[in-house]
């Protein structure tokens, strides 16, 4: 997949906020007309590992292996593991999956998630051969203080319709939806502007937060999320991406 190179990633939090403000004017909230055949889910997981070194110990025999040990005073290594899973739509069959692992260089700051996960997810998308028609991100779209959550940010860079599909609340005012699948309540900012929806994807299960990221309307975003949601709280492409990111993390930690 092609990716627009619109800014640097090695930035300070202050510079990151300025980048968000500059990108915000590029968001397109209009519906797209292309038929949907492929939907992708994108998510990331994080590791903090001790840097290892080889012990400078003479082996007892030629068959002995040098063991890895934690160096005295060794620094921690922070990593981010990304996963992208592409599914057919509407039957939800897995078509392709890609992963990547990179050093984590940006601190945790609410509202700047895309600067922690963006580089590794874009690395995954670079490997994807079956380009999705729409992408679901585990995070916000315009339901964000600067209307620039990860779905808006990466949707612009990928030039693809993107939907924010978050498990937790970040910004806005709303009422809880009724207790049945498909029930939702709109989320509005402090000025009353519509920025997303609190959506119930299963009865007796906590709702999720859906918002437009790029090149899609909110009503269409809600329809797609519901169509991709089967037995679980999260839509299938995102649920699989979350699981694959965790598996990638666990495998990396085991082999480290």
Question: What is the strand and helix layout of this fold?
Answer:
Layout: H1 13-23, E1 38-50, E2 52-54, E3 68-70, E4 76-88, E5 94-103, H2 114-127, E6 134-137, H3 150-158, E7 162-166, E8 184-188, E9 194-199, E10 208-214, H4 218-228, H5 236-255
Helix pairs in contact: 2-3
Briefly, what is this?
With about 260 residues, the chain is an alpha+beta fold. About 25% of the residues lie in helices and about 25% in strands. The two termini are about 30 Å apart.
Can you tell me about this structure?
The chain is of the alpha+beta class. The protein has a single domain, classed as archaeoglobus fulgidus dsm 4304 superfamily (archaeoglobus fulgidus dsm 4304 fold, 2-Layer Sandwich), CATH 3.30.2170. The chain has helices at residues 13-23, 114-127, 150-158, 218-228, 236-255; strands at residues 38-50, 52-54, 68-70, 76-88, 94-103, 134-137, 162-166, 184-188, 194-199, 208-214. Strands 5-4-1-6-7-10-9-8 form an 8-stranded mixed β-sheet, with helices on both faces. The protein has a two-stranded antiparallel ribbon with strand order 2-3. The chain is globular and about 50 Å long.
Count of extended strands: 10
CATH architecture: 2-Layer Sandwich
Strand fraction:
25-35%
Low-confidence stretches: none
Count of helix runs: 5
What is the first-to-last residue Cα distance?
30 Å
């Amino acid at each position: 997949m092609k990716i627009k190179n619109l800014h640097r990633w090695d930035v300070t939090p202050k510079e990151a906020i300025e980048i968000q403000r500059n990108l915000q004017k590029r968001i397109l909230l209009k519906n797209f007309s292309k038929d949907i055949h492929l939907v992708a889910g994108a998510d990331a997981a994080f590791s903090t590992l001790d840097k290892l070194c080889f012990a400078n110990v003479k082996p007892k025999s030629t068959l002995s292996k040098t063991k890895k040990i934690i160096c005295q005073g060794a620094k921690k290594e922070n990593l981010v593991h990304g996963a992208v899973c592409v599914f057919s739509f509407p039957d939800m069959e897995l078509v392709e999956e890609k992963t990547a692992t990179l050093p984590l260089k940006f601190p945790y700051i609410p509202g700047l998630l895309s600067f922690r996960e963006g580089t590794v997810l874009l690395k995954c998308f670079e490997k994807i051969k079956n380009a999705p028609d729409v992408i679901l991100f585990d995070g916000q779209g315009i339901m964000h203080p600067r209307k620039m959550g990860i779905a808006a940010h990466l949707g612009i860079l990928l030039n693809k319709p993107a939907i924010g599909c978050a498990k937790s609340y970040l910004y806005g005012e709303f009422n809880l939806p009724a207790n049945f699948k498909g029930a939702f309540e709109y989320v509005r900012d402090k000025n009353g502007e519509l920025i997303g929806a609190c959506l119930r994807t299963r009865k007796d299960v906590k709702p999720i937060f859906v918002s437009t990221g790029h090149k899609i309307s909110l009503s269409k975003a809600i329809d797609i999320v519901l169509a991709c949601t089967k037995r679980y709280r999260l839509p299938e492409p995102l649920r699989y991406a979350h699981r694959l990111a965790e598996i990638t993390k666990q495998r990396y930690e085991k082999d480290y």
